[in-house]
Amino acid sequence: MNIIVCIKQVPDTTDVKINPETNTLIREGISSIINPFDMYAIEEALRLKEKFGGKVTVISLGPPQSINALKEAVGMGANEAIQLSDRAFSGSDSWATAYTLALAIKKLGEFNIILCGKQAIDGDTGQVGPGIASQLCITQLTYVFKIIKLEPEVGMITVERLLEEGREIVEAKLPALLTVVKDINQPRSATLFHIRRASKLLIPIWTAADLPGADPSKLGLKGSPTQVIKIFSPPKREGVLDLIKADGVDKSAAILADKIIAEKVL
Amino acid sequence: MPLLEIDKDKCIGCGGCIDACPFGALSLVDNMVVVNDKCTGCGACLLACPMHALNLPAERPQATAENLAAYSGVWVWVEQFNGRTGGISVEMLGQGRKLADQRKVALTACVLGHNAEHITKAAISFGADRVFWVDDPSLAVYSTAPYASTLINLVREYKPEIFLLGASSRGRDLAGSVASVIYTGLTADCTGLEIDQELGLLLQTRPAFGGNIMATIICPNHRPQMATVRYRVFEMPIADSRRQGHVIAIKTAMSVEQITTHVVDFILEKDEVNLADAHVIVSGGRGVGGPSGFETIRKLAELLGGAVGSSRSAVDAGWISYAHQVGQTGRTVRPDLYIACGISGQIQHLAGMKTSKVIVAINKNPDAPIFNIANYGIVGDLFQVVPALTEQFKKKLHK
Q: A193 to chain B, minimum CA–CA distance in Å?
């Protein structure tokens, strides 16, 4: 089984604080992590490899420092890693990112499954996974929280997807791209053995020139249909806390109930 | 190597661009702005510079005016599940109507399904002038490929300028696929949609970084301008059964043999789990103490006709299923009323619920961060406060 995992390096938002005076983000000293949803994708890939054999290749598009995310994935047990890093890729929106990753996946050759996190915690779009699947013309299964059955030899997979109204069980043909949600597994920690391997592993860096068939007009900023024209802080929540302190729980609860009813939200 | 170019002769070192950068890629060194590898070339800093010292070198291809002029009209994909329309689709028909009026164009609803013709009438009553009705057994249950290929064909033939889909699981699944094939811009999870009167472009505003920043995005040179829209952002329009519109029957684009996925079963959750559509959510966190503690939460939610939410820690402890989780790694919700019980309010949880209309916090710890964003609060033991509150609502709402 050939399994490919697409990962993204994101700022660790647990570090993100708001400057109360300027209402802007304080970004100094924010560390970078593998997007948490992608950790579940890596773990699921490793589990599939352990069960069915084969190899796990992680790929990431990003600035030079994103190599650390790939090393971390190798430290967890991924076999190979490819970094996509080039000035020509800078400024990619979700369309151009999916286009570039799809080209890289085509270059990697045959595969059975591509795994992605359901979305990245910085952009929150969840569009790159479906974008890659469309570019490659393969089956797309989003919001997967359980792989029920996988039969690589007959090329079939059965998964459970988490939707608003409940859980959907879908049978699909391979190759397929899956985006996974948090509940699918518990990601493992890196092991010393694999960390050593990661530190020695030479991770190839692919540029636009390394991607056969890449249309330069569809890469990076140039190839991105969307443009950010403004960034601003969200409006602060109006009003201040009305802390209810009455004698006894029942009285407090009665006052709170009245206030909620007066808000006309029920 | 970062894409951004800094004209050192023009930069006065005011630092205005540093705050505008969402990625922390800019800093001041010797009163001069420098850019590091975190720069993604998003361009957010360009407008912040009063000296026009910042520049992105790559020329974007400009679409010809004639090309764009061929695209006209606002479209909404009307999602259905078991023959029922989701609230989000109705909200979008309402907002789509407003955008169409501003652009002086027609509003079209795309309804895909099987034996669900009543939805076409509903779409007209909520504001559609025209409905594309695609009735086929293969569309009875949502599946990416047949839905996407049908919409792609429609877009190619009828060329809308704006296409809105709900930011539901299905909407995001579908929009990503359609936009990728069409090669157009897609802005996910919008919470604001307006028309720029001068340029006639759709201004799409969305939260990023867990709601810590907002970005306004345009799609100037590709059509349609596609967006998925968050639940409960836009007003629910009032149905007008006298409205007239025409329904056009369309054939599906894919034969059954071409479809590579097959839905074999659906396990419906109780209404208490559907957080996205809920008007009221009562959530429990670490303070709930265990699975049985959620009974207290459930009783209040049930009485108020709401859904049960939870913080990540309660899910990780195994007290309640992941489908209930609100926050960065769970669902983003926007109910009219959010009651947080025994939830401290970590930044990741707040990211998922801080745009709720009214927030109520019940927590033992008076210093819990949840109180910073709450409208009302009671410091106390949730096992005393929540049952008391339930009793009070029973009395006052005559339930």
A: 28
Separation CA B15–CA A24 (nearest Å) = 13
Kindly determine whether residue A225 and residue B47, on different chains, have CB atoms separated by under 8 Å: no
Calculate how close chain A gets to B100, using CA atoms only, in Å: 21
For residue B350, being part of any structural domain is answered with: yes
What pLDDT sits at residue B20? 77
Alpha-carbon gap: B245 to the closest alpha carbon of chain A (Å)? 30
A176 is a domain residue: yes
Interface residue of A161, A226, A265 to substitute, partner B, most B CBs within 10 Å: A226
Domain that residue B44 falls in: 5-55
Q: Which of A103, A251, A260, A263 to mutate to test the interface with B (most CBs of B within 10 A)?
A: A260
Is there a single domain that holds both residue B106 and residue B179? yes
Q: Do B190 and B277 reside in the same domain of the chain?
A: no
- Relative to beta strand B162-166, strand B225-229 is parallel
Q: Is residue B264 part of a domain?
A: no
Q: How far apart are CA A108 and CA A112, in angstroms?
A: 12
The average confidence (pLDDT) of chain B is 92
- Residues B200, B284 share a domain: no
Do the domain assignments include residue A263? no
pTM of the predicted model as reported, rounded to 2 decimal places: 0.90
The pLDDT of residue B62 is 61
Non-local CB neighbours of B133 within 8 Å, separated by 6+ positions: B111, B117, B120, B247, B248, B249, B250
Report the chain B residue with the minimal C-alpha distance to residue A65. Answer: B37
- On chain B, the residues whose CB falls within 8 A of the CB of A91 are 3, 40-43, 56, 58
Supply the pLDDT for residue B68.
87
Question: Å from B108 to nearest chain A CA?
Answer: 23
Residue B304 is encoded by which pair of tokens? 């108020």
Domain total for chain A? 1
pLDDT tens, position by position, B311-349: 999 999 999 999 999 998 889 899 999 999 999 999 889
Looking at chain A, the whole-number percentage of residues with pLDDT higher than 70 is: 93
Is the same domain home to B137 and B283? no
Which residues from B are below 8 Å from A182, CB to CB? Answer: 322, 325, 329-330
Residue B203 scores a pLDDT above 70: yes
- Residues of chain A in contact with residue B179, where contact means CB-CB under 8 angstroms, are 95, 127, 131
DSSP result, B6-42? E-TTT-----HHHHH-TT--EEEETTEEEE-TT----
Q: What local confidence, expressed as pLDDT, does residue A25 receive?
A: 56
Containing structural domain, residue A110: 2-223
CATH number at residue B24: 3.30.70.20
By C-alpha distance, which of A134, A111, A112, A126 is closest to A179? A126
Q: Residue B263: inside a domain, yes or no? A: no
Q: How far is B391 from chain A (nearest CA, A)?
A: 9
Judged by a CB distance cut-off of 8 A, whether residue A94 touches chain B is: yes
Are B277 and B241 in the same domain?
no
**Whole-number Å distance between alpha carbons of B308 and B323:** 10
pLDDT digits (tens, 9 = 90+) for B79-106: 999 999 988 999 999 999 999 999 999 9
Asked if A260 reaches chain B (Cβ–Cβ under 8 Å), the answer is yes
Backbone dihedral angles phi then psi of residue A47, each to the nearest 5 degrees: -65, -40
| One domain for residues B253 and B132 | yes
User: Residue B64 — very low, low, confident or very high, per pLDDT cuts 50/70/90?
Assistant: low
- Chain B, nearest residue to A143 by Cα: B169
- Provide the β-strand partners of residue B361: B340, B377
ipTM (interface pTM): 0.93
Neighbours of B396 (CB within 10 A): 14
